[in-house]
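Re: beta-D-glucopyranose structure - here you go.
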Amino acid sequence: MTTPPQGAPAAPAGAPLVPVQPLDADLAPGSATPPAGADGPAPAAALGSDRDIVAALPLAEKVRLLTGADSWWTHGKPEIGLRPMLTSDGPAGVRGTVRDERYPSASLPCPSAAGATWDAELVQRLATALGTEAKSKGVDILLAPTVNLMRTPLGGRGFEFFAEDPVLTARLATAYVRGVQRAGVAATVKHYVGNDSETDRWIYDAQISETVLRELYLVPFEACVREAGAWLIMAAYNKVNGSRMTENLRLLRGVLKNHWGFDGVVISDWHAARSTRATAVATLDLSMPGPEGPWGDQLTQAVGDGTISEELLNDKVVRLLRLARRVGAIDGTGGHPAAPAPSPAAHRGDAADGAAGPAAPEPALVDPDLLRTVAAESFVLLHNREGSTADARDSAAATRGILPLAESALRRVAVLGPNAIHPTIQGGGSAGVTPVSVASPADSLRAALAGRAEVVTALGCQTWHMLPEPPIRMLRDPVTGEEGVRLEFVTGDDAVPVAEHRGSANLVWWDTPDGIGWGKPGRIVLSAIFRAEHSGCYQLGVAGVGALTLSADGVTVIDGVTPVPEDPVEAMTRPGQLRAALWLEADTDTELRLEFRPAADGAGPLTFRLGVVPDAEDETLLAEAETAAQGADAAIVVVGSAELTESEGFDRTTLSLPGRQDELVRRVAAVNGNTVVVVNSGMPVLMPWADQVAAIIHAWLPGQSFGDALADVLLGAAEPGGRLPVTLPAAEADCPVLRAAPDSGGALRYAEGLLIGYRGYDAAGTRPLYPFGHGLGYTSWAYESLHCPGAVDEGEDLDVFVTIRNTGQRPGKEVVQAYLAEPGRPANRGRPVRALAAFTVIRAAPGEAAVARLRIPARAFAHYDEDLASWIWPGGVFTLQVGRSSRDLPLRAPVRWGVGRAPGG
Ligand code: BGC
């Protein structure tokens, strides 16, 4: 259950700040530099007294505090004024302890979309709003941001990462951490480190050289710790160089704590702590979830018999108390009184049918206008050519491309494609939330053009892996008659402790009533009256991990068992689904009854869902889309990922769009020269039709405001402000890293070294379809001059000034990007041809010039030297290259750097 254990009386008053003594300094290849600290609420106070408090706690009490109380809560300790703290996922919205339509969340553009804004100030604003929503829901610890790198475009969780480049990731991740922590909520930087793909994520051993770790994968973590003062780091499931990340002495105690001076809490990824001593010694601080786990009695015993020092435990508890002070979970520190978070316990409470728990205060959801703005700022206009007919364009458009559409010339617009009607607003897995609302492209364009142009829609083809739930208006609760379904939790002895109305047939639980769940004898029963709107054959599906039955009007149509997936998260993201086809008459009631007995050996979140769709042939759907496109003034084709294409728990197997979407685009483009394709996917997809369409917008997984932001951009109310945070390949074979499957021994070799993303394309001389950093707006820019000192003093940052001018017809945004090319290319193989060093956003009016100031950090001129275990500055003449993408760099200047050693490591 997720009820917080009780809070307690006031803590002792604060005392002066005393830094925690570093543990064995031998692992630190450099001096410990205290982090800058967040610019949020009061930093940790009273550490001296915390050490005293901890020293006075009985051993078993300290151990208890170091494992979660349940799925999401930590333990409290009323005697010392410590209340339990609440954790919640995740980067694109704060879910809370339940995934339930009764407690919705703002659904943000996914992190790869945030990456596409290249705008740290905007990301910080969004993160502060997210932190504020979290706080209003009683959440103390947000399990975000995810700062792994897009090593492979197939990575299932790539949509949760900001970019393929460490500098872009670091700049946006630090803004995110600052934003969340400014709201008084702790950010958790995850997954430390090497969790850049999902295949066998629980067991693979990422074999990464020290240079590559330091220069690529650790960069965002280091920045979040040293610059943004992150309060938690999450240790990943995988191993790095032979040691599990929860047990990785060198990377946790050595690099993170001793070298970077991290003073926060290292939390395990969920169930990632698998040993007692190794995790404790490596300085994992908090094992989640609880109450079980590898610590508990075993840890108490290990300290008792002297295998583990009590000082090691004291340090963990001191860190936990410091975190509690930071988020206000200790009395007397001015923290927030946690709003009651929705929990099954609170809301099922007395188990009375339909009874609600205590009324929680209204959550402060992220402002939908901000979500709409960020989505438009993330949309990347990949190309924008003239359409083939003049109908959709005014005269100015003849020179600037088909977008924005000239509204006055639109009479009929075809909005086509599976994602126009069923958009994929978020990726699968722990990052998912129940959105407050969803604006689909079809609905938003219809609303935006109402009274001015007709909007016709067509699905085009089917892409789902799992049958989607039917529109809720087609389902009725048989008891109350309301829209929705009836749920009963039935125990092994046929008692019904909980019966309730639900407004969704797509259900997920982390905690269920006693007697029901994995390995328990109980079952969950869903009943509903389904009313078809058209007569015809329908596909019905029931999904979950375990035994499933479905009866229609008392006749059993499905009765079977689905397999237990290897990764527990797949019980939520892609449980097995059993299907049947049924003929249903329009406007006739059908009584549906579904039963689900969770598998005895299942694990992870429990999912149970009903899917119903009309049986349809792709051939018919494609023909309907073609017909709708014929004669329309513009055809907007929204293609992309289906619900389960991109998810935590598995990698994609192909970069091709699912289903027959490529064919859909080609067929529409063949009959309508004003075809605009919108790609709704969190990561790259192949676009074999790119040269056949007038314009392409990459729209990512844009959260709840997708349709509204898209209408703004297509009709010109907003500019598409995004630039690619990841290279878009012309073919799969061109990707520097494609499949990330470990070998049979579990080794996942990062053999490409430093050459991921654009660095790999540059080194191989391969031309991407669209390069890293690319994106057009609705205006044009001239890069006029670069002012760059010819030499930099050792250890200094370099300030450069770039003058650009808006040469187009409307105000716009430009992302000025500076890359550094090392001396000695092409001889120094294995080093990148160029690497992003700094960037900034400029906005200017038509005709206006603006000066971009870019600070190139001293670190950009350094290498990590494995023999010296230190950063070194090899010196020489670098070339600074400035422009609008990694392949469009019109301004260049030489910069001399003196030879040197790392100033302060
Ligand atoms: C994910 C984490 C997430 C945690 C809690 C894990 O499976 O890897 O990112 O925060 O679950 O949901």
